[in-house]
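Quick note —
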Amino acid sequence: MFVHQRMTANPFTTTPGTSIPDAAEVMTTRGVRHLPVVDDGRVVGVISLNDIRAALPSKATTLSAQEATYLVAKLNVAKVMSKPAMTIAPSALLEEAAVLMRDEKIEMLPVVDGGRLVAVITESDLLDAFIDVLGFRDHGTRLTIEARDEPGVLSKLTGIMGTHHANIQHLAVHRGHLETSVVVVGVNTLNTDAIEADLAAQGMRVVGRNINR
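Predicted structure written out below.
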């Protein structure tokens, strides 16, 4: 799966010269926690609600509320934003975006094509993709199967599904550190009793079953 398949196009943005209160208002009214900072179509930074909170005067300050509000109003996005912004291309694998966001502890990546902002990819986009890949909301049955981690096992599993005319809609494998792996298979049938019996006969154990009618 690629970034362009899951990214959010036409994102809300701000500019380096925008005041902090105005940027905060955009985030609040639009229900977002981050804004790409764009100058002439190019991403020059990212500002988040956490960046804004960090820029606010401490509660321990001796400033009056009016003085604090005045000082914050004089700040602009350029003074508070995180820069340089980490970005990713639409053609990148979704896993690349996930690893970058996880390693750098960020919740949103601007998506840049030809040097210009075209979209953003967020934690919510990644979670939606994860749910879709595992087929948790799709009609049918999602089986979680414990199987030996050895050649030919997956072929046996898919062969059993074919024997019972069950269409595999989703398939994911998690390889642990033991001799077994966990295989998640989403099929388009609600009754999997015969399938499970054949799996058990091949040494595969169904450890979870989710049925969506």
